[in-house]
Amino acid sequence: MVLKAFLLVLLYSLLLSSTASAGRLPNSPKEAGRTVVITERAAKPVHLKLVIDGEKRKITAAGNITVGECLKREGIDPDKFHVSEPLTETVKKGMIIILKSKTADELKREQQDIEYVKRHPSITGRYHPGSGAHLVVQAGVQYVKDEAGSLHLIIGHRLMEATAYLPEDGTGDGITATGVPAAYGIAAVDPDVIPLGTRIFVPGYGIALAADTGGAIEGDIVDLCYEDYDEAIQFGRRDVDVYLLAV
Fold this sequence. Notes:
By secondary structure, the chain is an alpha+beta fold. The protein has two domains: 46-101, Ubiquitin-like (UB roll), CATH 3.10.20.90; 107-245, Barwin-like endoglucanases, CATH 2.40.40.10. It is built from five helices and twelve strands. The chain has helices at residues 2-21, 29-32, 67-73, 104-119, 229-235, and strands spanning 46-52, 55-61, 81-83, 96-101, 134-138, 141-145, 151-165, 186-188, 199-202, 206-212, 221-225, 238-245. It has a six-stranded mixed barrel with strand order 7-11-8-10-9-12. Strands 2-1-4-3 form a four-stranded mixed sheet, with no helix packed on it.
């Protein structure tokens, strides 16, 4: 009888140990005292297809990487192509990624935009809501006047949806698509809508430099960088007037 009881206790202990190691919560303080090791399984490889300038290629990629990482592992520079999927999106089974080579003129223009931004990493100052920059009209012409009193000629206007982001968002390194540090006064745009290197004015934000891009920034959307979390949350998402300024 004693032996039978001992075997039952032993079997119960083995069952507890097995289920605890599978990752469930312990049933007792005694069980909680055990060291539980949970091994995280690697993501399953996924099969997908690349279509590069009309040429199809079937590939297998790790299931936990982004489209951008996938292309780089295949020896493809995503900056030289128009890519059908956001570079920050995780690859999925059956995904078809279509790439179309950028023309020589497009690559040249983008390089000029990047060089311009690198030569002009700063803006006229840090503008917070209610400070400095504002719209003025002189001799029938509308300008943006900054805190220093300088006038910036308005050369375009768009009604856009604005969002807010922090420097550590995105890749987390705080570096924009053009290589300059993300900070208050830097805006992420769709380069097909607002060329990189353009200075813009957003009432309630101030003067900003279009120096960043993003997978979700397509069309009439502008993402404004804030350095303070509370300010970014307070700004949220809203429709804004975006004024394009002369260089």
